Amino acid sequence: MMSERGDRWLCIFLVCTLSLLCTEAYDVGLTFLNSAVAKGAVCLDGSAPAYHIDKGFGAGIDNWLVFFEGGGWCNNATNCLTRRDTRLGSSKKMLTTETFSGMFHNKAKYNPDFYDWNRIKVRYCDGASFTGDVEAVDPNTKLYYRGARIFRAVVDDLLAKGMKNAKNAILAGCSAGGLTSILQCDNFRSQLPATTKVKCLSDAGFFINAKTIIGQSHIEGFYADVVRTHGSAKVLSPACLAKMSPGLCFFPQNMVQFIKTPIFLINAAYDSWQVKNILAPGVADRKGTWRECKLDITKCSSAQLNVLQGYRLEFLKALNGFGNGNSPSRGMFINSCYSHCQTGIQETWLRNDSPLLGNTTIAKAVGDWYYERNTFQKIDCAYPCDKTCHNRVFE
């Protein structure tokens, strides 16, 4: 049994640990955009869209970070029905607070370049990266495919709340929201004054059109169904649509060269979501031989690691159209970690043990690029060379 003195020291340790964690993150309440319902800008179930906002202060009062949450996609009515009554399809099911950390933090120590900005996290409830706009509502499913309307309604609301006077603005997002920041980048730029410095940031949003471990084009067909179901074509790049099908224009590699607004990509070359859902989805791994490898990259066999190295090369090839001749308006931080989304949590955004590339944290790379203190276009060496990675281990 532990002594009374030992108990006291354990309590002190736990309090100190929890205090540290509390300073690294804090909760922000949920704002429901009820005025959007009249415009038909609603979640899958017809409920109002919602976002979390921590208002800017001091020198950052006219600076805006608008960040769109991720959460995958639904590609048909059956699939969308499974999420309609969850937080990914209804604001009625969302938690009323969200933890702000990393790029959202309001302390300079944790977020030196954006801590005093207006920081907004838009909740994801449409299932198509905020691109859908179908007028008709199926009377049987009562599903609303209105993501593009949510995007417009949120931007309009923020403009009315002061973003119309923005000096600086960033459209950002993680995962499916990172895809939003790519697909909607120029559209966002067009909504703001010409005098506003506008840039876009995609965290883990560069999904590639790769075949599965058994050579199937799984994600290509899935994306084509998403675009068809949600009526997404009307918000995709016209320049891309002139060359290929709408489903293919949902892939960043096919349309990123048409983006005119400055943009920064943060992505793991071994993106854990892509490995689990594009490279080795369940339909391509029916016997589950990739299960342990997908949960923990250190459990991959040498043969599986060879496949992952091939995927990395395919990912880097897909990036070819992005670099744009090393243009300073384009930035990228492509590390060799097994992870997915690295801006919204303190440990990967900015901490003493955060991932580094060129001896630079993600926070510094993004800040230097946004404020034009330095350019940043770096690609990591192959796994397992990077010892600064925070590789994800899934249950």
Automatic annotation (TrEMBL):
Keywords: Cell wall, Cell wall biogenesis/degradation, Hydrolase, Secreted, Signal
Keyword Secreted: yes
Gene Ontology biological process terms from the UniProt entry: cell wall organization
UniProt entry tagged with the keyword Hydrolase: yes
EC number: 3.1.1.-
Localization of this protein: Secreted, Cell wall
Signal sequence bounds: 1-25
GO function term, MF aspect, one: hydrolase activity
Coiled coil: none
Family to which the UniProt record says this protein belongs: Belongs to the pectinacetylesterase family.
Stated role: Hydrolyzes acetyl esters in homogalacturonan regions of pectin. In type I primary cell wall, galacturonic acid residues of pectin can be acetylated at the O-2 and O-3 positions. Decreasing the degree of acetylation of pectin gels in vitro alters their physical properties.
Listed name of the protein: Pectin acetylesterase
Organism whose genome encodes this protein: Lactuca sativa
